[in-house]
Amino acid sequence: MSMIKKISKSIFISIFILFTYSSCEKNEGIINDIQSVQTGLFNSVVSHDGLSRQFIMYVPTNYNSDIEYPLMINFHGFGGTASDFVETADMRSLAENENFIIVYPQGTLLGGFPHWNSSAPSSDNKSSVDDIGFVEKMIENISSTYSINEKRVYAAGYSNGGFLSYYLACNSKKFAAIGSVAGTMIDDSYQNCNAQVPTAMINIHGTNDEVVPYNGDAYASTSIADVVNWWKNFNSCFNEDIITNQNGSIEQQIYYDDSGNPYVQHIKINNGGHYWSDKLDFNGKNTSELIWDFVSQFNVDGTIN
Fold first, then answer.
1. CATH number, residue 18
2. What is the pLDDT of residues 188-221, one digit of tens each?
3. What is the DSSP letter of 59?
4. pTM value?
């Protein structure tokens, strides 16, 4: 790797982890525009903490208000957009077949790049954006118009979006299960996680990820092994199955509690990098399908019988 690439990588990681600058446009006059039921893909907005917060929704075309729908929230990575993530983490056909509603929120700007504030206030965290409050307000507003099963709200994210998924699980009671792809727990979340409801966790991570290293780094990124162990201990999952694909490039680690509930799953991509890939194929499932298949087993009370 050239010196320029090393410097560029270091600058990116420093911005990504430490949140050295934040800027957001305030707009007190925007109100929630979810006023009538729409189906398919559409844009929406909610006002929270003086900010106009945007998100994209996908509602199955056969939506029926007599059914309570699970809610799947997908968070883009640092520098990403909700509109691009609709394509990258595309769950629309799954939503049609499995009857759930998807939300793709848009992060606010951090030095000109969209981001998620996935850490508590500190001298290292210059972002003052209340993303937990925004997400909870968004769920509340969606639930006021759509029939949502509030025991089956899920979060998943890529990279910085994965960081936020962990942060939500540690600080909100609304989430039954979370997923992270190429993300981890910032040291603050790892040290101070206060998860209060049974929360299942799946993470998918490449061993050659140079942005969010598999083994952690000095920028306060926790190693994937430590993250898995935290959620194993939280969910009392000490029984393990390990499954590998035919060429050994992907390893699935499943952890069960004593009742056989698989609350924790880690998918290790040997030599994999920093990406959310629809080309990932494990037992015929891509990234989006693996996440949905996992989280949909749970509600906030535990596994769904």
1. 3.40.50.1820
2. 889 999 999 989 999 999 999 999 999 999 777 8
3. E
4. 0.89
